[in-house]
Design brief:
- The complex is a heterotrimer of chains A (336), B (318) and C (504).
- Chain A is mainly α and 336 residues long.
- Helices cover 74% and strands 1% of the residues of chain A.
- Chain B has a domain of 199 residues.
- Chain B is built from 14 helices and 2 strands; from the N terminus they run αααααααββααααααα.
- Chain B has a two-stranded antiparallel ribbon with strand order 1-2.
- In chain B, helix 5 packs antiparallel against helix 6 and helix 9 packs across helix 11.
- Chain C folds into 4 domains: 159 residues, Rossmann fold; 69 residues, no CATH class; 157 residues, Rossmann fold, CATH 3.40.50; 80 residues, no CATH class.
- Chain C is globular, with a radius of gyration of 25 Å.
- Classes of the chains: A mainly alpha (336), B mainly alpha (318), C alpha/beta (504).
- Chains A and B meet through helix 6, helix 12 and helix 14 of A and helix 6, helix 12 and helix 14 of B.
Amino acid sequence: MTTQVPSSSGAFISITGLLTRGSTQFGLWIILSALWAVFASVSPGFLSTFNLNSLGRSVAVDVVVGFAQMVVLATGGMNLSVGAIGVCSVMLAGYLLQVLGLPIPLAIAATLAFGGGLGWLNGIAITKTGVNSFVVTLATASLFSGGMLILSHGVPLNGLPPEMGAFGRATVGPVPALAIVALAIGGLLYILFAHSVLGRQILSVGANARAAEMSGIPVSRVIVCVHVLSGVLAAAAALMLTARLGAAMPAVAGDDWLLPSFLAPVIGGTSLAGGAVSVIGTILGALLVSTIRSGLLILRFASFWLQFFLGVFLLAAILLERYRSALSAREQTRQA
Amino acid sequence: MKPLTFLLRQQWSGILLAVVLGIVALSIANPTFNTEFNWFVLLRSICVVALAAFSQMIMLGVGQINLSVGALGGLVAILVGGLMDAWGVPAIPAACMAVLVGGAAGLLNGWLTVRTGINGFVVTLATASAFNGINLGLTRAVPFYDLPARFVAFGNGRIGAFPLLMIVPIIVTALLAIFLNRTVKGRHLLAVGGNSNAAELSGISVSRTIMLAHALSGLIAAIAGVLAVAQLGSAQPTIGSDWLIISFAAPIIGGAGLSGGSVSITGTVIAVVLIGLIQNAMVLLAVDPYWVTFLLGALILAAVWINRIRTAGMERAR
Amino acid sequence: MSLALRSITKSFPGVRALNDASLTLVGGEIHALMGENGAGKSTLIKIITGVYRADSGIISLEDRDLVFSSPRDAIAAGIAVVHQERNLIPHFSVAENILLERLPTRNGLVDFAQAHAQTRQHLAKVGLDIDPATEVRRLSVAQMQMVEIAKALSHKANVLLLDEPTASLTEAEAETLFRLVRQLREAGTAILFVSHKLEEVLSLCDRVTVLRDGETTLMAAPVVGMTRGNLIEAMIGRSERPVVPRKRAPQLDQPLLQTQALTTSYGHKAVDLTLHRGEILGLYGLVGAGRTELARALLGQGKIRSGQVLVDGAAVRVRSVRDAIKRLRIGYVSEDRKYEGVILDHPIRSNIAITVWDSIARTLGLLTSNDEIAVVAPLAARLEIRAPNLEQHVGNLSGGNQQKVSLAKWLAADVDILIIDEPTVGIDIKAKSYIHELINELADRGMAILLISSDMPEMVAMADRILVMHEFALIDEFVNDRRYETASTRIMDAIHSATAGRVG
């Protein structure tokens, strides 16, 4: 994994030391553990099975949404249509399951392929026209959601096969099934970026597309791949959301996904400039956001203030990250 | 230069044509289009949108992005509503205070972007969240309804088809045009967007210019928020929630260059009218309103594509 | 009025860019600054314009010692620069660009009438007759340059630095520029004319300073009485470095890469070359000769207008860089080491393995760091890449080690044909010899190497045969006897005749 810092510069003697000199993920672990300790001590209900399960389910979807953005950030681009693809996928899944009555595995496969197809359109538009991904995906977000809503009128579909909702509620031991799915996807992405050719190609395109091209990397193909992957992940998140809600409700995805899709990866150490990602960081980032949300609820803070804290937190996290990487760059230079 | 040649040379000639054709087509398709009341509705609907678009347009002019346009506008809307409803402040002082807060919020965006060196995209993403949060926190999702009668009357009033509300965007458009075209600070703002390196070497402070741009953007978004409250007759916490895409769409369709430094007030206004026309048409023709969203996306892509062809053509001509 | 730089030394990690270099400018003179790639010219320019600070040495203006901590300090001191790349606000008018920071106002608003009037005066000084309201992006490159010069002059600059000003100009436009420059000289401005074009310097300039290997080889020499030979000698002449001999003379019997009458969209005209297995074919030329462009054409960038490229006897059409690497087994060590040759933010390990990820992967395209290390570690050891470990970011390595990484990835790819573009520019002596030895070794083992270099000693030491390129055409080809006198003279003569052939 590419977020790196040589930690061999002597013993850490303070928490701030740990926070600033360890890797981003390590710092996040510390903050998370601290928050959990605080929330649990104030209200034991925080650690109740009920709360943890509900936390787990909502985090699961947020994590996969974060992944959908993360893979595009890896190439130095962004995908503003993550929410739109989510909406489209939710409606398609609902339609396939309820109206066409397709068996669940088939509907899932078709939905994922559909999401990938939309992502493919994004990738092709970006690479063929040379327009930057911000504008293209801004436009396709409107195109996709508008188009889908024209077709479906945004009517929620409540008559899904009961297995969907059941899966959404299921647990394997203490862990919700949805969380396991999210972790499994995370595992696959980790393998992609740490142990596969495509993953390395993606990261080199993000770090320096010109150098990658001159080393034989098929840059355009990689960018299209990444957008296809982003579309598939957005569709996956949509399916998980549908399972969690037990119904296909397009209104819940969409613009609501924009901020979380950036929040999780960026807090977790994925660079906006491209070339470095952290799967674990994205998971921790999403967990952090959900923890704060849940904790505020438990502490009976008005949950409205969550949004405010999230915004402040994002800024603080990035500032910390910059400070940290400036420190580590200085250390690496000294060692070289 | 003959007027026709002048028109054809402009980047916005295409969308102007679309607007004219659209008006003609709609008049034929549905007789209620050309009624005084419908024109009033149409004109009123573009007031807030125009300001939201200008708010983003200034950012595009300086080469930055402001994702908090909607959230900032929404927050100001709540503030002005709260001041009038909960604190009984009369309309004009309340509006002034709220707009100033908006300017300050914009300045905060600018200050954060410049001092921390964090990408403006991320900064405004974060502040958007923060502003939304304060919005929800103050209102608990309950709108403010008790507004001074004259304020609401201003929002509803009209002379024939001309909405009183429209006075504000007209004034803002004129002031903005003067600022960007005829003042030194305005020219420096566009210079920074066009080539920040050249601007810096010429002695222009890029940081201060970016902060100014953010402050102006916030100010205009704030005015949009106040207008929205007047238009709705109540301060809804959902104000601003759908401004983001339109705030980009209008300037881009109006011909703004994506790299910065090249924006068109006229083009943005025509684009806003075009979008308003499309929305109006959807209602009159009883077409699914989601077509607007769809068309918006298509228009953005078309505008950018055409822009690229134009620039490529100009490169080759040189 | 005079601007003097004395004993300027500037070092970067591992390499000394300027070593005791000096330059003196006097008002009313056109002073040329010449030097090849890596000579230190651009470093000196950056010091004059305040971008860099010298490690030691003195800058003095009218006998007052100055220190520049930023480009604005240099501008304030009266030094105006017109760079190679345009630096204007594209959508603004000529008037706004020239008067950007001092727009005239009336009643608080910009007074465009006044601005246009002032601009017309500034434009008149450079003889540019255009409407001040014209948007700068609609002008030709030559006109844009004039606008920048007008802007520089409007600041009452005493020193005007023109960096490769004729790079994008036609002959007629260049003539107009020269007329202007002569007028400025009459008016007393000190003009620093940076150029690599011999004929320009000889016809336009009064004095010339030449840099080579960071040192001043010719200091403010009068151009009157200067010959092309003198200049060429000063730029690329002898220096005291040992020659690294080849172990064995190659058999030039297996052509691996050939071009026949190759004409490209870059401007090459009917280039014929043959590169054999085991051969080091040198491609020599001054800056701007078209050598790097030829390499890019061979890699599938740029269009081939006519002629053929043959690999191993068969005519091929190179579709992309990836195609060149994977199918035709051609590698390219880029001239732009830092931003094209390596990925600075990534570790050594992935930088070297990048060309072979496809082939070392197991099923499903999976591979581990250990798979990479298995390929990379032996190469890193063999090339003696100095770093604590393979995870070190390449950006933290010295220039020499970065170049080794850039080379190593082609060794990993086991290419048959390797084009090496300016391998030792800005690299310390020790790494230089190491890389030379390595190139020898690769050729000994059968690799076909096209060596592009403007470093004369390097060329003479390494190449088996030498091609000389000038203005996108090959002007000479000969077998290298590895004797510095004969080879260097032959090259210099070839360039000499080629440049003499031009109508000055």
